[in-house]
TrEMBL record:
Lyase recorded as keyword: yes
Superkingdom in the source lineage: Archaea
GO MF terms, alphabetically ordered: carboxy-lyase activity; hydrolase activity
Keyword Nucleus: no
Species of origin: Caldivirga maquilingensis (strain ATCC 700844 / DSM 13496 / JCM 10307 / IC-167)
Protein name per the record: Amidohydrolase 2
One annotated Gene Ontology cellular component of this protein: cytoplasm
Amino acid sequence: MVINLGGAVDAHTHCYPDMSINEEMIRLSRILGIEQLWVSYHPYSMSGFKPPSEEVWRANEFVYELSRRFKEVKGFVHVNPLNQDAVKMTEFFIRERGFIGVKLYRAVRVSRRIVDPIIEVAVENNVPILVHTAHRLYPTSRPNESEPDDIKSLALRFPKAKIIMAHITGGGDWEYAVSRVRDLPNVYVDIGGSVVDYGSVEEAVRVLGDDRVLFATDTLISAAVSRIINADISEESRIKILRLNAMRILGE
Ligand SMILES: [Zn+2]
């Protein structure tokens, strides 16, 4: 079976310090017909969840270099909102480096007001904010990991922000996740992650409609590709999820 995703956009993926992995990922993406990869630095390749400023600058510059080398790569600036220069860094990578989005990980929940100046920069520059999010099904201690309700708080504070709730299939309760953002038109979800339960894409489309669901791999390409090509949805919806919704977010 030949798979061609028809110019898809991978709205959430990462690069690694080992360049051979990045080259392999891009080679595979080309074979699959993925035209754009929205890339932020792999968070687990950093020293912790609250990386110091110098480390984050270096990581973002690494993404920039990758974007210069591979036309598919579009940068998302990784930001630790706890760093003094977080706003400056966000502005620099969007305005001077051509990055097309902001990535927030697990330094702080997005319901906290400390993230607001960063979101303001994203809104001013009309770029999306991708937020690592999960509603875990097992007991866990991840105090700074955003839950769907933190996304809701952010979306209500910033109705003009384009917020992507990351990887509904990244290890949390996807049914709960999509239900919590149903009434927030500025919240999108991506279908990346490793969980291969049946029905996640169908449920996202049923609850949110097919305009707010984005194809993404979060580097787990085979899971994401099988999830989208096997989803029991219309071809029109599939094309929206694979490409058109992402292009609309970029204003193209
Ligand atoms: Zn990720």
